[in-house]
Every structure is written in C-alpha cells, then in structure tokens.
Amino acid sequence: MEGAYGKAKAMKTGFIGVGNMGGAILKSYASSPAGKKDRILICDQNRQLAEKRQEQMPDLSMTDSIADLVGASEVIVIGVKPQGMEPVLEQVARKYRPGKLIISMAAGISIAYIRKFLGEDARIIRIMPNTPAMVGEAMIAICREEPVDDKDMELARRVLGPAGKNEEVDEKLIDCVIGVSGSSPAYTYMYIEGLVRAAEANGMDREKARVFAAQSVLGAAKMVLESPESLEQLRINVCSPGGTTIEAVQTLQKNGFMDDIAEGFQAAVDRSIEMTKEKQKHDH
Asked: How many angstroms separate the CA atoms of 276 and 1, rounded?
C-alpha cells in the first residue's frame, strides 16, 4: 500500500452511529484520498442525523438497517455509546461473517464482550479516540487480538489515519489510555480557561486571551512531539534564573499542580475500570 493508500483497492466501509466521535472520524476519512475512492455507508438510529451527515457529505450512502450496512461492508465502524452496544451487536451478528473487520470505540466494551455476539473467529479492533478528531488532531489507541493481522491494521489505519495520530497498545492499557488521552482534552480546556480568566483579570479581551493561551498550548505540544529533549529540559529551557517563568513554575509546584493532574487522571482511569466491571456484572 502506498502513502495515502493511493493505489490500494477501493473498499466498502460502514459506519454505525455518526454522532460526535463517529461523525468526526467519518468526516476526516470521507474527505481523505482513500475515503473519496471507497464506498462509505452510514446508519444511525437518529435518522435526521444520518440525513444531515449525507447532506454534508453527498457521496455517502444511507442504509435502512444495521443488517443491510453490515451485509454490504468489509469494514464496520461502530460509534455508539456503551449502553447502546448490546442491541446494535445483536443486529450486527445477523449479517456478520468472519471476513469482515469490526472497529469499536465504545468505552468499557472489551473485545471479548463483542466476540460473544460475533463468534470466536471474529476480527475485532478496539479503539479509544478523543474529541480532537473533529479537527484532524485525534490521538487514537488501537487494540487487537488474533485473528486480526497486519493487513487488518492497515485497513483500520486507512479509516482512522486522517483523523490524527494512532498507536497500537495492548488492550489491558485501555483504561490508562482514557486517562492520558481519551479524557485529557477536558483537563487541557480547564488549563486554557484558567489562563484566559487570569488574562481577563489583567485587562486582556477574552477572545484575544483565548487565542494567546490556545496557541501557546498548541506550540508547546508541538515542541514535545518534535524535540528530542526531555519534558523536564524543555521546561528548564523556558525558565531563566530570577525570571518570570521560574516564578510561575515554582508557584504551581508549591500548590501541587502535578499532583492535581495525576489525581484527575487516576479518577478517569478508575471510572473506566468500574464501567467495564459494571458491564460484566450486568451480563452475568
């Protein structure tokens, strides 16, 4: 397969659930070179939402039922909330065949759980994306089990790649992923909001402060991704002795800034573990 899958053969991809997250991945994929060549089908229990997506992306085909979509697709992306998974999987099972690849993004729903509906030989990939998929800057964790192979992973990356970055992780790390990337945009928005409020209190216009704060976070994140230096060294590089930055950093350290972040992270991880246990208990 070439760079942007330029010479890969066209495939049929179905999206069940095209709300915020499913819709964001759908949009980035549908506008990519591979997506423009592929046939994309959609189905959502909210028909008006599916019609809206079709208006936005006229090349999409809407199906009347999940079974129709599954029957016609080689890759099926399931973007429904965890509590809606059971009835959806029951419908998927009606037309699922082992050659088809399933990609699920429901929190707390394990590969093993999906396998109970689709069979032991089902090809299932579990992903954990985050909301920056809406602007093509997602961080997506990809988990797999046999019989999923490298060719299946290529197909998954063909669909997910345009939404941002993706990395393969062991499924047992999925709760950790929720803490570090799945939920963390929310903590980052809080940090930006804190900067905006402080700038406003010092006389800056709110909209201008929003741009100053957000661009600084974007730039710092880019430095982390592109610089070979450690996070500690990057921080030290900004802190001149006796200067303004070191004053701010020492105040944040004294007030337990890093501990607060770790506590918030852990709360998200613990809730994810709890959700999985609740699902398992409910099924027994």
From this structure: 36
